Amino acid sequence: MLMEKARHDLVEFGKRLVRANLTKGTGGNLSVFDREQGLVAITPSGIDFFETTEDDIVIIDLDGKTVEGHRTPSSEWEMHLMPYRNRTDIDAVIHAHTTYATVFAVLRQDLPASHYMIAVAGKDVRCAPYATYGSHELAVNADKYMKDRRAVILANHGILAGAQDLLNAFNIIEEVEYCAQIHYMASCIGKPVVLPDEELALMAEKFKTYGQRKSKD
Fold first, then answer.
1. Number of other residues whose CB lies within 10 A of the CB of residue 206
2. For residue range 21-40, what is the model confidence (pLDDT) as tens digits?
3. Can you tell me the distance from the alpha carbon of 8 to that of 12, in angstroms, rounded to the nearest whole number?
């Protein structure tokens, strides 16, 4: 069986997304890229995260062709492949339907740096233009608006994050959702103060040694 560890991790992090209230039902999808083999392990389409097994994970190549697996890969497989094709810093991608980031998605607003933890994703998180789920246009929009960032908000949809592994991709989803919640709540009271770019640049440097999660494996 190809990419056994990745299969295990995808199953576990899918459950973790739901337990952390970062997605609902079958909403969202996860993938891992094996750069040496040029293969991607991705969650299947339409199966509850708590029912997904390692055998349900689909292995595809960078053209989206199934190499191993009896399930249909996530309908948004192309949105996962774009970062793997175009970037060298991303080997894991998570898409989720988080609550507060999706508030910004339906408002079609960028999430500014009102809290310094947004620096795990970049100096802000852009909102990509709307496109139908699973479409080529959505994949292109997500890739374009995540340039120089590690997360992007998908208009009227949810959030996408990428990192060197699933642990850090999950951390980005979690931190951006927290920042979105704080910005939303602060906006209900007054006008949030946005941190300057130079402070976010400093945070980015500090996070190179502090903000990256390390797997226990």
1. 12
2. 999 888 899 999 999 999 99
3. 6
- pLDDT for 26 equals 84
What are the residues whose beta carbons fall under 8 Å from the beta carbon of 175, sequence distance 6 or more?
117, 118, 120, 121
User: Which residue type does 31 have?
Assistant: S
At 32, the amino acid letter reads: V
Distance CA 17, CA 204 (A): 25
The reply to whether 76 belongs to the active site is yes
The CA distance from 192 to 186, in Å, is 6
**Encoded tokens for 112:** 């500014």
Strands 151-154 and 127-128: parallel
Check 36, 76, 137, 177 and give the catalytic one.
76
The predicted-structure confidence for 53-103, as pLDDT tens digits, reads as follows 999 999 999 999 999 999 999 999 999 999 999 999 999 999 999 999 999
Going by C-alpha positions, the residue among 79, 91, 121 that lies closest to residue 104 is 121
In angstroms, the CA 126 to CA 145 distance is: 6
